[in-house]
Amino acid sequence: MDPEPGEFLSMLTAEEIEALRAAGRPRRWDRGTTVITEGDTADWVLVLTHGRVKVSSHTSSGTEVVLAVRGPGALLGDMSAVDGSPRSATVTALEPVQGFVVRDFSSFLAAHGRIAVLLMQLVVGRLRDADRKRVEYGAFDTTGRVATRLLELADRYGEQTTTGVRVALPLSQDELAGWTGSSREAVSKALRTLRDRGLIETGRRRVVIHDVEGLRKRAR
């Protein structure tokens, strides 16, 4: 499977990808498996090649907050591998996933300067995305945040059909709530509002966006 645009592997040359593969070993996980556990300390990273995962953390009260959904080409666990601090989030397979694990990632970066610079650019991009989401939480209502996340999934995973853009939704409503900083009840109401306006159609683990521009306007 080709890496998603903007993910780590999409930034590398074919030679750099081969060097990264040569430094690692292949792994696979079933759907629902915990790939990385928050609080653990390790020096390895995972380069995802197939499937999608969710990156999440838990509040002191036990509420799960979904930080991101990552797909093919993603680099996971890099912050802990570089600075030696405990893992800052848990990574869970949303579907069967495959990738390769690279141990002693800091040494690999020391030997591949251009890749180290690209990693810096990737981390800066994540920080900018986190800042944007914080602005959304303060400025948008739940329906706006849900619409924004659906558009993000459509841009990355959407499939054009005769009735609209079909998205195989990898998240449950509870997980979507955690991704939008809302309650499950508020997300359910937001989806119903978007359905009633004819913007989307929902089914089991899927959404069809009938009016992308209309959904984009509601997101704003």
UniProtKB/TrEMBL annotation:
Q: Where is the Cyclic nucleotide-binding domain?
A: 8-98
User: Entry's Gene3D superfamilies?
Assistant: Jelly Rolls, Winged helix-like DNA-binding domain superfamily/Winged helix DNA-binding domain
Q: Which InterPro entries match?
A: cNMP-bd_CS, cNMP-bd_dom, cNMP-bd_dom_sf, Env_Response_Regulators, HTH_CRP, RmlC-like_jellyroll, WH-like_DNA-bd_sf, WH_DNA-bd_sf
Question: What UniProt keywords are attached to this protein's entry?
Answer: DNA-binding, Transcription, Transcription regulation
**Domain HTH crp-type stretches:** 140-213
Specify the signal sequence span.
Answer: none
Domain of life, per UniProt, equals Bacteria
This protein's name: Crp/Fnr family transcriptional regulator
